[in-house]
Amino acid sequence: MRREVERKFFFDPAFWRLRPLQTTSLAQGYLADTGGWEIRLRRAGEDHHFTLKQGSGIDRGEWEVPVTAQAFDELWSKTQGAQLSKLRQTFKLNGLVAEVDRYPGVLEGLVTVEVEFPDREQAAQFVPPEAFGPELTYDPRFKNRALAKALTVPCRWNTDGSTWSYGVIPFQQTPKGVELVMVSTRDRRRWIFPKGQPEAGKLPEQVATAEALEEAGLRGQICGHPVVLPYQREQGATNLLLFPFQVTHIASNWQESTQRERKVISLDQASLWGEVVSTGAQIILDSLGAVGPRKKNKGDTHVKTR
User: Fold this and answer.
1) Residue 291: pLDDT over 60
2) What is the CA radius of gyration of the chain?
3) CB proximity list for 131: less than 8 A, separation 6 or greater
4) Is residue 188 part of a domain?
5) Which residue has the higher pLDDT, 54 or 305?
6) Which of 16, 62, 150, 263 could cross-link to 4 by cystine, CB 3.0-4.6 Å?
7) What distance lies between CA 118 and its chain's CA centroid?
């Protein structure tokens, strides 16, 4: 079984100038009740494949074999209710392959891009071009298997600020290893990362770094591309835009010190503190080797908020 190392992002064609190498119509269907395996049927033009995938995040196991059109048609009916079509354009990007997907029907308007890498190190060092929006790799709602069952686009970037919170994934590198900093909610029932609501006149990264200081007493610098995660609250689901944030100073007293608790934990402890913290640890692990001041492309000064 080969390893598939891949990252997925929102995509804005308005900032893209490259010409596609190929355009292909894809039809994908997913079998139900397959345990920890994702089992997919794909028709790409005249080609038909049966694919098994295992794992999550940027690095997954993949096993794929071609099948006949007849075998594909026989199995296709078993994917009813979990079928997806999309138009894929393939581009060359600095020695890599970028695949831009447009989705019709209930997912109309959603455009994503996937880039596959030879290894995790190159995936960590990748600097997304200007057309690449926030990263979707870790959001289960944007897995193709989930999109195949979706009744609408899970979320749209920058269309309704009321459904978004901007925050950071704070980490520090110490002699003991990489550590995360997390805070409790005000009711102290859950552990999360510092985050806040959009503010008029402020960029998402400005809101995020301000919340790091107010909620957790943290100073530092953003050092990676923002990542999208879902966040379930009692008031309903919202969307997190989280920036990897390298901590340079932790204050002993801070603005919300009487309202929240703060903890510093090792990455291998993160699974004990809830899904958001656990996923944040995985994001930092995957980005090791690319930490430090965030690299920028020409003209890429902040997350687009058009």
Assistant:
1) no
2) 20
3) 11, 12, 13, 14, 15, 16, 113
4) yes
5) 54
6) 62
7) 19
Q: Region 270-279: what's the mean pLDDT?
A: 94
Alpha-helix runs per DSSP H in the chain: 69-76, 120-125, 144-147, 204-216, 275-287
Least-confidence region, from 92-96, 140-144, 147-151, 237-241: 237-241
Cα dist from 182 to 72, 167, 190, 207, whole Å:
48, 11, 10, 17
Give me the residues paired with residue 239 across strands: 164, 230
pTM: 0.91
**CB–CB of 117/285 below 8 Å?**
no
| SS3 letters across 148-183 | CCCCCCCCCCCCCHHHEEEEEEEEEEECCEEEEEEE
String of DSSP letters for 116-153? EESSHHHHHH----TTEEEE-TT-GGGSHHHHTT-SS-
Residue 97: which CATH number?
Answer: 2.40.320.10
296 located within any domain: no
* Phi (first) and psi of residue 281, to 5 degrees: -65, -40
Question: Which residue is listed with tokens 């999309």?
Answer: 86
223-249 pLDDT tens trace: 999 999 998 876 667 899 999 999 999
Over 80: is that where the pLDDT of 90 sits? Answer: yes
User: What distance in Å separates the CA atoms of residue 272 and residue 281, rounded to the nearest whole number?
Assistant: 11
Domain that holds residue 71: 2-147
Q: How far apart are CA 222 and CA 295, in angstroms?
A: 10
